[in-house]
Design goal:
about 35% helix; globular; Metallo-beta-lactamase, Chain A; seven-stranded mixed sheet; five-stranded mixed sheet; 2 domains; 12 helices; alpha/beta; single chain
């Protein structure tokens, strides 16, 4: 398969993508440090794309199905992105996906209890708690550990919500419900994909089906479910208000806006609806189903140094939408050109 030179990546980026897909063999450090010629970069990326295509396991809950190509390339806010680099940014390494990130308070009654690259959020109320995204089933005990390290009881989780029907975000729902008895809720459009998600043969629990704009309330804390389809049919962005000191803040917990490899007319229509919706949401605190979408690690580091709450980031509220909308239009243009339109 010929690979145009404009698709060539630097070796560091190639290694990052390969390691994310579980296919990178051990490479001596001295080789990694060598200067790679443009021709070698092209050959390496062609091999990587071919290997990804062959090795990727297809399932209803895959984060990307099929694996993304490394084109087109867009530049947003001075940084270059490709479909493959965005996926690598979001997922990190296999270890990142399962390694606990220090649990921490984000703002008000909202806490982070996920891994290095898979978000899970805990919302605390006097009458019980809400969890958004159980991630992989193998991470449920890690989430439990984080909840307990923050001083809360895992069994106090009364409601289990999700952002979208991919394994890395909601595979753990059945186990988490088994351990806590939490009531599970899901956006109607994602129900078929969730029902197909059966780790260990467990049926996926759905106690209540939600619709666009529906509110979920527990003891004075209200979350609104916004249908922001495209990444999945029922991709759900959650909004809520929380109090820090004497002020109220608008929180947006975004569902992924990453377009699939092939844009069908249905998906195009969904994204054309979703981007304006996301941009219209009141926002002081932007969050996402992958920490990299809101620079969590950088903000957490600032918080540890005593900075004023870096998660209050109005200037960052549109950044992820800027990246993904630019990629969506670039993919659409490329697809139309390939079709001769």
């Amino acid at each position: 398969m010929a690979m145009p030179a404009r698709f060539a990546l630097g070796m560091a980026e190639i290694l990052n993508v390969w390691s994310t897909m579980h296919i990178l063999p051990t490479i001596p450090e001295e080789i990694m440090k060598e200067k790679v010629t443009r021709a070698t970069q092209v050959v390496c990326m062609a091999a990587a794309v071919l290997a990804l295509t062959v090795s990727w396991g297809v399932s209803p809950g895959s984060a990307q199905n099929p694996p993304p190509a490394d084109h087109p390339e867009v530049t947003v806010h001075g940084r270059k992105y490709t479909p493959a680099s965005i996926l690598a940014r979001n997922m990190g390494t296999p270890e990142d996906q399962t390694t606990q990130f220090p649990p921490h308070k984000i703002i008000g009654n909202l806490y982070y209890v996920g891994t290095k690259t898979l978000s899970s959020f805990l919302i605390v109320t006097p009458q019980g708690n809400i969890l958004i995204d159980s991630t992989y089933e193998r991470n449920v005990r890690t989430i439990q550990k984080s909840v307990e390290q923050l001083g809360f009881k895992f069994s106090d989780i009364k409601l289990l919500l999700g952002t979208h029907a991919h394994n890395d975000h909601q595979e753990g729902d059945a186990l988490l419900k088994q351990l806590t008895g939490a009531q599970t809720m899901a956006m109607a459009e994602d129900v078929p994909a969730l029902q197909a998600m059966k780790p260990g043969g467990k049926d996926h629990p759905i106690d209540k089906i939600l619709h666009d704009g529906e509110k979920v309330t527990l003891d004075g804390t209200t979350l609104t479910a916004h249908l922001t389809a495209g990444h999945t049919r029922g991709c759900t962005t959650w909004t809520m208000k929380t109090q820090e000191g004497a002020k109220m803040y608008d929180v947006v917990i975004g569902c992924s806006l990453r377009p699939p490899a092939t844009l069908t007319p249905e998906v195009i229509a969904e994204f054309n609806h979703t981007f304006p919706v996301v941009r219209s949401l009141a926002c002081d605190v932007p969050l996402g189903d992958h920490p990299a979408q809101y620079n969590m690690q950088e903000k957490y580091a600032k918080l540890q140094k005593g900075a004023s709450n870096p998660f209050i980031d109005r200037a960052g509220c549109q950044k992820e939408a800027d990246v993904e909308e630019a990629m969506f239009h670039a993919l659409l243009d490329e697809q139309r050109k390939q079709a001769g339109h």
